[in-house]
Design a protein that fits this description.
By secondary structure, the chain is of the alpha+beta class. The chain has one domain. Helices cover about 60% and strands about 10% of the residues. The chain has a two-stranded antiparallel ribbon.
Length: about 180
């Protein structure tokens, strides 16, 4: 599944062109940030530090502890919830085989079944959170690279105004959108 998501992310990244003068280099850089971030989490953010604007005094390394903290926390929760799930499952199966209660003496077999399902649900949520953190850091590296490479020069303009349309029978406003390029 991760391969499919990465493949779709790479394909969708390669089809968008914002500028014509240096779009090939921009696309290669965005592609590289995405691939680096998918191979080693956080490396796309470090790669984006090469092209950050000069007036941006913020370092981009501050995202690394957040990324690795999220991945480590999710991994720990997966391991913990799976271990508890296995312990309770073994205790419940041991009781069904006729053995006496060893670990969870104060719980009945029905209560152990509910607790086992709860740890399974928590383990599954932890796996989803791990995948979420992983995908979010890939998306962050991609978007950050595209935003740093986006042209914000004076040659682009954007106007939004309304057009007043008067007829004999009615009067209404029409939104008008214009995008101007200076070449």
């Amino acid at each position: 599944m991760i391969r499919i998501v990465l493949y779709l992310l790479i394909i969708s990244n390669a089809n968008y062109y914002a500028q014509t003068n240096d779009s090939l280099d921009n696309d290669k850089f965005t592609y590289r940030s995405t691939i680096l971030s998918s191979i080693i989490p956080g490396s796309g953010q470090i790669n984006n530090n090469k092209i950050k604007p000069v007036n941006l005094h913020n370092r981009l390394w501050w995202k690394l502890p957040i990324i690795y903290g999220g991945l480590a926390t999710s991994s720990y929760l997966i391991k913990f919830n799976h271990q508890e799930f296995i312990k309770i499952k073994d205790e419940r199966l041991s009781r069904q085989n006729g053995n006496s209660a060893v670990n969870y003496i104060s719980y009945s077999s029905d209560q152990l079944k509910l607790i086992q399902n709860e740890y399974r649900r928590l383990r599954d949520f932890s796996i989803i959170s791990l995948l979420g953190v992983y995908l979010l850091q890939i998306i962050d590296a991609n978007v950050e690279a595209q935003l740093f490479l986006f042209d914000i020069g004076d040659n682009l303009s954007f106007k939004f105004k309304h057009l007043n349309q008067n007829n004999l029978f009615s009067s209404y406003l029409i939104p008008q959108f214009s995008l101007n390029f200076k070449l």
